[in-house]
Amino acid sequence: MLCVIKEVKKQMCSDAVFNPFVVAQRQFDRVADLLELDEATRALLREPMREYHVSIPVRMDDGRVKVFRGFRCQHNDALGPSKGGIRFHPQETVDTIRALSMWMTWKCAVVGIPLGGAKGGVICDPHDLSAREQEGICRGWVRQLAKVVGPLADVPAPDVMTNAEHMLWMLDEYEAIHGGRFPGFITGKPVGMGGSLGRTEATGYGLIFTVREALKEMGMDIAETTASVQGFGNVAQYAVELYQMMGGKVTAISCWDQVACTPFAYRKTAGVDLGELRGVTDRFGGIDQEKAAALGYEPIPGEKWLEQDVDILIPAAMENQITAEAVGRISGRVKLIAEGANGPTAPEADPLLVERGIVNIPDFLANAGGVTCSYFEQVQSNMNFYWPRDEVLGRLDTKMTDAFLAVSELARRRNLSLRDAAYVIAVDRVAKASKDRGWV
Ligand code: NAD
Hints:
Layout: H1 2-17, H2 20-35, H3 39-45, E1 50-59, E2 65-76, E3 82-89, H4 94-110, E4 116-123, H5 131-145, E5 154-158, H6 164-178, H7 199-217, E6 226-230, H8 234-245, E7 249-257, E8 262-267, H9 274-278, H10 289-294, E9 298-301, E10 312-315, H11 324-327, E11 336-338, H12 350-355, E12 359-361, H13 363-366, H14 369-383, H15 389-414, H16 418-436
Parallel strand pairs: 3-4, 3-5, 6-7, 6-10, 10-11, 11-12
Antiparallel strand pairs: 1-2, 2-4, 7-8, 8-9
Helix pairs in contact: 2-4, 2-16, 4-16, 5-6, 7-8, 7-14, 7-15, 14-15, 15-16
């Protein structure tokens, strides 16, 4: 509980100074300058093309009606139907949703999937709501937006504090309104109910496909490398799984300690045993300290994950972890960072990494495996024909590899960082599609 209060206070303080939409627009302005975009294209891409603010009345368990506020922002759909998650969060703001919808546009564009960017949210805390009340919010959100979302227009997905159950309630409401079965309306469904095999591992595996390609270009054998990972949740666990399958050795892992409300890390120079560590990890990615120690994992302070003498760092937990100050603590051996989390590197740290010759695969490329597999789910659902896991992961490998190679080729040709090159490719694709459609 103390943790929750601290977190809420931290967020309330930071919201006063941190507006993600301002950040997203600044990033866009920089790339627009690099691409020398005209005024009309800038004006179009700086804001969501459409945004909806809805009121969702829900009859609560005590008989009263409570009205929840919800949003959907469709940033740009020049490349195809827009795609993006729905968040349930008590501190949700429309500016967060606007920023996230813009980032979804760039993420889909950089991996070359024919989708635009969207994001949605409802101001609510599922912890304080019964399952019936949450169902009411899901169905109410769809009732308000059923005319402007859909398999050919805008495809939602799970996000912060929403899950497969929420998606199925939303799908059921959409199908009741439109009279039919439209599994392609939403992604994140369970396998057997329109979900795709491979989705659980897609983000972590996608990350490692880009790591494999980067190491090849750097002339390094993945089987000779070591890595330190921040986080041990969905992204990190599957990244470690594939990295180890390719012969790499993970020597340190960190996670959040729920009891002490602080990060915590574990080191094993012989290499962590994934199965063993998963066995002492809860469903939130928290590792049990006593059990890990009994298995021979050396406990170290949480921030030390960054200071390990390894070749690769994989931040796969939180934003703003690699700050300018933190760059000074990174070992001279580190050659590569692969951003599993969203926004783990502070903007002022980027040029310092470049100076040190550390290659950084940017978040919206490195962690795009999730949305790529969601796109595969959408395709399979629209066909009502589902692929075996190997086919899903094979297609994922092709998409991630092609995207990485295109970004690194541009980075070399124009002497850009991978992040700038990825932005240039993404924004250019969306700007061209908007122009080709005659919008600007
Ligand atoms: P998760 O909730 O499954 O796991 C998060 C992990 O981070 C847990 O192990 C937790 O203990 C750890 N953690 C939290 N705070 C920490 C801290 N300060 N120091 C060290 N460890 C800490 O989350 P996830 O799905 O693995 O997502 C991780 C990141 O990747 C997030 O930034 C998320 O937005 C991003 N991401 C996830 C996906 C996806 O498909 N899951 C896709 C794209 C991006």
